[in-house]
Amino acid sequence: MTNQGTKEWRRVCARSDKWGEENDCTVKALAIATNSTYEKAHGALALRGRSYRKGTSMGRVFDTLKDWGYTVKTEYKKSDIDLAERWEKNEWIKSGAGVQERAKKWRRSRWSKAKTIKSIVPHLPKRGVFLIETSRHVLCVRAGEVHDWTDGRRHRITDVHRIIKEAKRDD
Questions:
Q1: What is the mean pLDDT of the chain?
Q2: DSSP 8-state assignment for residue 155
Q3: Going by fewer Cβ within 10 Å, which terminus of the chain is more open, N or C?
Q4: Between vectors from CA 27 to CA 21 and to CA 28, what angle results, nearest 5°?
Q5: Spatial CA neighbour of 133 closest among 59, 82, 44
Q6: How far apart are CA 20 and CA 61, in angstroms?
């Protein structure tokens, strides 16, 4: 699958193959989102606890992004919508009004119209960097283009996060 995808995707796949890595979608997505090298992203996540040839949590990715001067803004969260629907059916009362408000926001977002990676392409903004989560995978969307092997596939989207580079301050 290394020969598919964009130039950036092929670049990180070549480095991943050289290292003999597997389960490194977070490393690849981080490298593409920040326009850094595969080795830099790999090392940063290893310092945060990612084991060789093992996946890692999005919390570690977000912490790394914060350390590198990026802000993460969640644009869409399917679990909040599911929680609100359970709350409406009185199956789970503990979710509360905060979840209801977030669910309304997520339902109105452009991302709620796209359920899969394949169907998201027309809804992608032409500017910006996003990390998109599925149940067991993460990928990067940069400048309206999907940088991953899942491009054109029907993997269900669970979360969408916008990655914003913070402006450098002159202190």
A1: 82
A2: P
A3: C
A4: 90
A5: 59
A6: 21
For 146-169, what is each residue's pLDDT tens digit?
A: 999 988 888 888 888 999 998 775
User: Largest Cα–Cα distance of the chain, in whole Å?
Assistant: 53
d(CA 2, CA 52): 20
* Residue carrying structure tokens 């914003």: 164
Q: How many other C-beta atoms lie within 10 A of the C-beta of residue 2?
A: 12
Integer Cα distance of 159 and 106 in angstroms: 10
pLDDT at residue 164, rounded to an integer:
94
> Is the separation of the CB atoms in 161 and 73 below 8 Å?
yes
For residue 55, the one-letter residue type is G
Helix, strand or coil, per DSSP, at residue 95: helix
Amino acid (one-letter) located at 118: K
Q: Per-residue pLDDT for 92 more than 60? A: no
Place of tokens 């945060």: 48
| Strand duo 70-77 + 159-165: pairing | antiparallel
